[in-house]
Amino acid sequence: MKCLSELPQGYKKILSLDLQKDKKLALKINIASLVVAAVMGIIAGLVIAKEYFLYFDIVKIMIIFASTFAYLVLHEFVHGMAMKSFGLKTVKYGFTLLYAYAGSKDYFKKNMYIITALAPMVIWGVVLVILNLICGMEWFWVIYLIQIYNIAGSVGDMYVVHKVSKMPKDVLVLDSGVSMEFYSAE
Hints:
This protein is an alpha+beta fold.
């Protein structure tokens, strides 16, 4: 299964999403991300003993900041690797004022796009759970804060997957990184 470099004949655009231009949608996604982060933090705070907060020091705080930036880059790298696994030759990476992105000029089939969109959240989610299990309680909050960033930061990807999952089976997605266009022949 490969992505397509050209839109097949008879396909027409059925939806466009641009989080840079659609401020209302961007605000809703960012609020949803904050809600997810708050819920994850509250749940962990209720389950994990409060004394583990005492393990924080300047080194761990610096690790959290550095890891958060590294995660942002690695998140987009995984999107790009997923795109390449479907035959894409060139991935365009970049940053805007609001988002980091991986994009392309090719068209992805529905299932390919869903896998590409969810890959970073799933892969890094598993890696971070494993790290939390093997690194002990002293490092719980450092790793878990990155996990919160992973899940909350993937709310936009989950939103797009939700939209795509309701579209026709033949839908093709053009994801330039900051905007997406959806095409169908149906």
